[in-house]
């Protein structure tokens, strides 16, 4: 074989081996990020996951960063070959560190200053003297240089601020721990907007300080030793960035699946949207970096005294040499030119082919960028900053405005903006605030309004007469509607449209802060409608709702426009009277509300009457926080109810003492049954015709270990309000049944014991009397041994639950007595409809019983009516022989009262049954 053939064979094998190397022995390199994983570095993840690094013969490891300077340290030390850094790389270069910028990803820096929005007109100078978080206190150059330059240009010295070590937690701004907070526009605003926190955003670009954001960089040593690797890494990275910016949702899912789950998908997509005007992938080739912009940055650093004037940073920006394969081709071509006469022709042919390839690449790039512009999911427009004329728009921009392409191009940039938003936007753009991100409204031709998120970004204009800006808009109308609905539902009562409990708390806190500043009082009025439950029970909940709406309007009509009326729930309303210099004002308002409630409420074909009980408490006289004020107003309202309703009452310390006593007594009551502190007393019910005792009423008493005997009037309401009445009622029933069985066996076979049922016990849904009947069967006692006493109010509830329970009692042989008859909502139809066995005439009729008196006439009428309906009558509160005689002549069946016996402990009552009853005339039976 000839020498030439051998050489050719060797060359072919060498080329094949070189081509195979990337597939089997990829070079391992490390990329050091400057922060934790997030969408800010999406291009690098895309390059790795889509195989761009792999195709370039690279095995890339991506490391998270702990601080902004870690990439610089890692790259210079050789721990990492590539890093992501900010514009402060220029400071490092001019400090003698051999860093080289390979390409710029963020054409504009994301650094902004967030300031909590307060009352009145705010500007940046409002942070002077306030606590701020601006960069790290230990490393200002890499964390705060851009913002320091901005504040300096605005005339705000860093020494005039109270610097606090940066926590990078936006919650510190929300909680008011700091007044201002340096942040990335791509990140922290997401959390503030989710929290509903109002803030102002200040960008250094508003003062003409336009730094680059993230830059891909390496070291001079890496370029010198591995030039081809540097070129390949840069090209693959930029390809990854192009993919990431075109596929943000895919990258968001990738980041959460393979890199970090610290951020929600919503957060990552928010970051992607915010990056679009910073990266500008449609208008600027990814990785493009402008030496003039770096000169601008160097001048800013010089103004801050960080760099000398006109500093030379030659070698700082990467300039790729010719690729190695091209050098090899040229050498072959040169050698071929010496050996072969046709080398010149081949050379020019290759050059022509390369020029054609470059032109085709440029055309493809232009088509790619144009496609991205046309197909972008947001509206994009190129606008002449000086004239406001549109230079170009995409289809989505025209669609959002509701106009055709031609209509938009004939108009000016601000012509579609809502009149209320136009002045502010014109002022901002006139001032050069091209880093603006705001929410505004556009008016469509049909008059409808569309809400948009708008971003303005300055663009490179070297070849243009006027400066231009890129306007990107996104339709967020539905989002705004949803947010408004959610906010309305979260803060306002759906029935009355009044502020709800949450909004009430916020308003009180605001008024407290204002009153502390102004030295004035606040009055809180707690309003509860009297007898509202009866309206709901008799007329239905729909009519009750109508009454609540009308009541809310009457209350609002009684207060000033600056006062707040809220509905806490049910029939409870509150009023905040602010700016009071005297308490008399609250008296006047409270009385106006009481008077307004006196008028009848027209509810369709019905009329209803309610009154109101009002509790009043004052800030700062009674308390200095929302919860205490509301609690005190509630206590005062209950005092007004206890005093007879339809009145107002001021909070006093005595009410608090009484409330504490009630709370302690309720707590003691919880252990009363297990502690065997309850007792059942029995009061005889005497047959007036014979004087015999065949019936008794069971009455519960509480023997408190410290307080002694506690009156039922004191602890029964507590038992009802706490729900303990159910447990107490069960215990009383079982005790009464036990004694009834004993007295039926020892005294009389038809002896009956009456037990009282609270409305709360009787109206429990899903709870019948099956367990009572089972207990009676267990102890061998007939149902006829027991009588259940209920109040007239229960009969007003015509629900099936009430009827079913009365039928249950009848079917089991348990009789029913209507207690306190004559004091409630008496109706013959109720007595005729339900199975009632006894009427108990209330003691208020018996107390003043005398011949020819109205009470006597009413009592006689009740007795006659009851007998006509087949009911027997028990007179309560019989205390004198004269009352007994009058009732006997009127035909009353039974009497109960102190004339015969007070309530007695069970053992004493048992002893009384065993002895003859002493009648009024002294005879015995």
From TrEMBL:
<dbReference type="InterPro" id="IPR013655">
    <property type="entry name" value="PAS_fold_3"/>
</dbReference>
<keyword id="KW-0472">Membrane</keyword>
<keyword id="KW-0732">Signal</keyword>
<feature type="domain" description="PAS">
    <location>
        <begin position="365"/>
        <end position="426"/>
    </location>
</feature>
<dbReference type="Pfam" id="PF00990">
    <property type="entry name" value="GGDEF"/>
</dbReference>
<dbReference type="Pfam" id="PF08447">
    <property type="entry name" value="PAS_3"/>
</dbReference>
<dbReference type="Pfam" id="PF00563">
    <property type="entry name" value="EAL"/>
</dbReference>
<dbReference type="InterPro" id="IPR001610">
    <property type="entry name" value="PAC"/>
</dbReference>
<dbReference type="GO" id="GO:0003824">
    <property type="term" value="F:catalytic activity"/>
</dbReference>
<feature type="transmembrane region" description="Helical">
    <location>
        <begin position="328"/>
        <end position="352"/>
    </location>
</feature>
<dbReference type="InterPro" id="IPR000700">
    <property type="entry name" value="PAS-assoc_C"/>
</dbReference>
<keyword id="KW-1133">Transmembrane helix</keyword>
<protein>
    <submittedName>
        <fullName>EAL domain-containing protein</fullName>
    </submittedName>
</protein>
<dbReference type="Pfam" id="PF09084">
    <property type="entry name" value="NMT1"/>
</dbReference>
<feature type="domain" description="GGDEF">
    <location>
        <begin position="520"/>
        <end position="653"/>
    </location>
</feature>
<keyword id="KW-0812">Transmembrane</keyword>
<dbReference type="InterPro" id="IPR001633">
    <property type="entry name" value="EAL_dom"/>
</dbReference>
<dbReference type="InterPro" id="IPR035965">
    <property type="entry name" value="PAS-like_dom_sf"/>
</dbReference>
<dbReference type="InterPro" id="IPR000160">
    <property type="entry name" value="GGDEF_dom"/>
</dbReference>
<dbReference type="InterPro" id="IPR015168">
    <property type="entry name" value="SsuA/THI5"/>
</dbReference>
<dbReference type="InterPro" id="IPR035919">
    <property type="entry name" value="EAL_sf"/>
</dbReference>
<dbReference type="InterPro" id="IPR043128">
    <property type="entry name" value="Rev_trsase/Diguanyl_cyclase"/>
</dbReference>
<dbReference type="InterPro" id="IPR029787">
    <property type="entry name" value="Nucleotide_cyclase"/>
</dbReference>
<dbReference type="InterPro" id="IPR000014">
    <property type="entry name" value="PAS"/>
</dbReference>
<feature type="domain" description="PAC">
    <location>
        <begin position="436"/>
        <end position="488"/>
    </location>
</feature>
<feature type="signal peptide">
    <location>
        <begin position="1"/>
        <end position="25"/>
    </location>
</feature>
<feature type="domain" description="EAL">
    <location>
        <begin position="662"/>
        <end position="917"/>
    </location>
</feature>
<dbReference type="InterPro" id="IPR052155">
    <property type="entry name" value="Biofilm_reg_signaling"/>
</dbReference>
């Amino acid at each position: 074989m000839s020498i030439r053939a051998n050489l050719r064979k060797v060359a072919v094998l060498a080329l094949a081996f070189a081509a195979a190397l990337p597939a089997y022995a990829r070079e391992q390199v490390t990329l050091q990020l400057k922060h934790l994983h997030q969408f800010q570095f999406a291009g690098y993840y895309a390059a790795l996951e889509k195989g761009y690094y792999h195709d370039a013969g690279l095995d890339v490891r991506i490391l998270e960063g702990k601080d902004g300077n870690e990439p610089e340290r890692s790259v210079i030390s050789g721990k990492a070959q590539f890093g992501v850094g900010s514009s402060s790389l220029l400071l490092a270069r001019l400090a003698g560190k051999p860093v080289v910028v390979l390409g710029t990803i963020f054409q504009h820096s994301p650094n902004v200053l967030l300031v909590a929005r307060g009352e009145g007109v705010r500007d940046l100078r409002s942070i002077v003297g306030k606590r701020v978080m601006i960069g790290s206190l230990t490393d200002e150059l890499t964390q705060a240089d851009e913002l320091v330059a901005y504040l300096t240009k605005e005339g705000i010295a860093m020494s005039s601020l109270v610097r606090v070590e940066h926590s990078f937690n936006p919650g510190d701004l929300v909680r008011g721990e700091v007044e201002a907070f340096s942040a990335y526009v791509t990140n922290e605003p997401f959390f503030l907007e989710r929290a509903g926190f109002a803030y102002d955003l200040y960008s250094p670009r508003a003062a003409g300080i336009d730094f680059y954001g993230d830059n891909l960089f390496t070291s001079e040593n890496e370029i010198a030793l591995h030039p081809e690797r540097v070129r390949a890494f840069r090209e693959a990275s930029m390809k990854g960035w192009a993919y990431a910016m075109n596929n943000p949702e895919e990258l968001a899912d990738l980041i959460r699946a393979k890199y970090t789950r610290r951020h929600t998908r919503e957060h990552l997509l928010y970051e992607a949207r915010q990056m679009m005007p910073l990266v500008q992938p449609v208008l600027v080739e990814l990785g493009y970096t402008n030496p003039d912009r770096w000169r601008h940055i160097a001048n800013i650093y010089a103004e801050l005294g960080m760099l000398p004037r006109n500093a030379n940073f030659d070698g700082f920006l990467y300039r790729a040499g010719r690729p190695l394969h091209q050098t090899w081709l040229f050498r072959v071509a040169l050698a071929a030119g010496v050996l072969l006469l046709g080398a010149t022709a081949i050379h020019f042919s290759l050059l022509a082919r390369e020029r054609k390839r470059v032109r085709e690449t440029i055309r493809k790039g232009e088509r790619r960028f144009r496609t991205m512009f046309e197909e972008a999911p947001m509206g994009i427009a190129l606008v002449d900053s000086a004239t406001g004329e549109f230079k170009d728009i995409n289809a989505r921009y025209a669609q959002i405005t509701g106009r055709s392409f031609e209509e938009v191009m004939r108009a000016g940039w601000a012509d579609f903006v809502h009149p209320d938003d136009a002045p502010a936007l014109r002022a901002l753009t006139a001032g050069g605030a091209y880093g603006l991100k705001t929410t505004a409204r556009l008016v469509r031709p049909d008059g409808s309004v569309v809400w948009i998120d708008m971003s303005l970004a300055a663009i490179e204009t070297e070849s243009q007469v006027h400066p231009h800006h890129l306007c990107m808009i996104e339709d967020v109308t539905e989002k705004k509607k949803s947010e408004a609905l959610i906010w309305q539902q979260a803060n306002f009562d759906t029935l009355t449209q009044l502020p709800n409990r949450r909004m009430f708390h916020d308003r009180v806190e605001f008024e407290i802060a204002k009153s502390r500043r102004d030295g004035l009082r606040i009055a809180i009025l707690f309003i509860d409608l009297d007898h509202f439950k009866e309206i709901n029970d008799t007329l239905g909940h729909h009519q009750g709702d109508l009454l609540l709406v009308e009541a809310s309007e009457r209350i609002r009509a009684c207060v000033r426009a600056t006062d707040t009326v809220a509905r806490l729930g049910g029939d409870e309303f509150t009023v905040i009277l602010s700016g009071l210099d005297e308490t008399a004002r609250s008296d006047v308002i409270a009385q106006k509300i009481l008077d307004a409630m006196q008028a009848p409420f027209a509810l369709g074909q019905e009329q209803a009457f309610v009154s109101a009980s009002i509790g009043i408490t004052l800030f700062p006289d009674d308390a200095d926080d929302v919860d205490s004020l509301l609690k005190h107003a509630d206590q005062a309202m209950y005092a007004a109810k206890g005093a007879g309703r339809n009145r107002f009452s001021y909070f006093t310390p005595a009410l608090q003492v009484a409330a504490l006593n009630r709370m302690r007594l309720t707590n003691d009551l919880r252990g009363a049954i297990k502690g065997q502190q309850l007792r059942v007393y029995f009061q005889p019910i005497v047959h007036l015709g014979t004087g015999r005792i065949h019936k008794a009423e069971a009455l519960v008493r509480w023997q408190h270990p410290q307080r002694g005997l506690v009156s039922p009037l004191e602890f029964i309401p507590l038992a009802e309000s706490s729900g303990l009445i159910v447990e107490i009622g069960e215990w009383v029933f079982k005790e009464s049944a036990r004694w009834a069985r004993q007295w039926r066996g020892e005294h009389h076979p038809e002896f009956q014991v009456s037990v009282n049922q609270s409305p709360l016990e009787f109206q429990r849904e899903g709870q019948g009397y099956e367990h009572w009947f089972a207990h009676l069967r267990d102890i061998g006692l007939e149902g006829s041994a027991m009588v259940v006493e209920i109040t007239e109010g229960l009969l007003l509830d015509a629900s099936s639950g009430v009827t079913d329970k009365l039928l249950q009692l009848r079917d089991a042989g348990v009789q029913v007595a209507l207690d306190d008859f004559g004091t409630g909502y008496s109706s013959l139809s109720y007595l005729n409809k339900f199975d009632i066995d006894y009427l108990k005439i209330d003691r208020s009729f018996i107390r003043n019983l005398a011949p020819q008196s109205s009470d006597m006439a009413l009592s006689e009428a009740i007795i006659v009516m009851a007998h006509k309906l087949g009911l027997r009558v028990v007179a309560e509160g019989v205390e004198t022989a004269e009352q007994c005689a009058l009732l006997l002549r009127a035909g009353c069946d039974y009497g109960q009262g102190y004339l015969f016996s007070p309530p007695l402990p069970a053992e004493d009552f048992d002893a009384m049954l065993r002895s003859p009853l002493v009648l009024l005339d002294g005879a015995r039976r």
